[in-house]
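Re: the 392-residue chain
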Amino acid sequence: MKRELIYMDAKSSKFWNIQLEGSSHTVTYGRIGSTGQTSSKSFAGEEAARKDFDKLVKEKLGKGYVDAAASQASSDEIPLVAFTSIHRREDISHNAGTFVGKRVVDYDPEKAPKADVVYRFRSDWDSDKLIPNLKHFLALPAALEATALVIGAWHGDDSETSPEHVIATLVEGKERLPNLLALYLGDITSEENEMSWIHQSDLAPLLQAYPKLQLLRSRGGDGLKLSAPAHERLRGLAIETGGLDVSVVRSIGMAKFPNLEYLELWLGTEEYGANATVEDLQPILAGQLFPQLKYLGLRNSERADEIAAVLVNCPLVQRLETLDLSLGTLGDDGANALLKLSSPTLKKLNLHYNYISPDLIKRLKALPLTVDASKPSDMEEEEEWRFVAVGE
């Protein structure tokens, strides 16, 4: 018996395989693309080996690993598992180390481009080098083969600058990026600019310019728009904010994304601009808008309890594979509602960073699916006030 699992997030892309043979098993693990390391373990009998095999697989699934076979895609498709950038609260403070399964490297015009990395373009406080570097790359033959790009800090020494000039450059250079499948606009850490202070822009021109785009991820909510949201091939949309304006939620509720499989919205707090209600989410939750949706993330929300109560009975849950309410203020009220979850397709419930009592966490983990109810080590169990993972 064998299980082959993979894991991808903002920092790494890893594989973990385990082979069970009689009274022993062998584990091989490492970075995707490497041969990895191998370790074997023997037991007193076959039953003991099988129990340990099952235990190790369960632990890996609980940490976000998924079956490699289920995530396999054709050569021109991004595996769905690669869409999630941030799994844990701790990941937020780091720039992306990987994106859609490839290592992220800051672009250096003095070095020959590589085909096995994703380039990040960004400016420093003392140097607005993003646009010059991006234009330099677009002029090279390597741009014609690029499948993913990461855009970091674009503000230089002016934190109120929006990425309009970056979007305009990408739109103008669309003929130089004919194979672009994934774009991350806003790989910006809190040291560079707090998430709620990041000035954004209308993302619609990017959708219109890149017909092959499968994943669009953005960070920052101030000035964010998604006018006329439509795209035939988009499979993943992820919007990270400390406070998402209702206009964006309603725009997504009218979107034409027939192939959307992955939707991740960081709703945030009212203090930083979140003004959407659970009712504003109804067009999404009704289940007819995105017929291919497998993952729904309503993350970083101060309305997590309200959302959980509604989700249990919404039609969409009946065909989701992953429900993600992590990074928000989910407490016992929401947890009690989630105990009633019943879906023939649901495989994973992500509740990482929560305010749920230990007893209810134990009951949630008894559900017939993988439940991540982990908490950061610095999170107080008896916290009187609840805070989302990212406000500022």
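Residues 144 and 177 are 5 Å apart (CA to CA).
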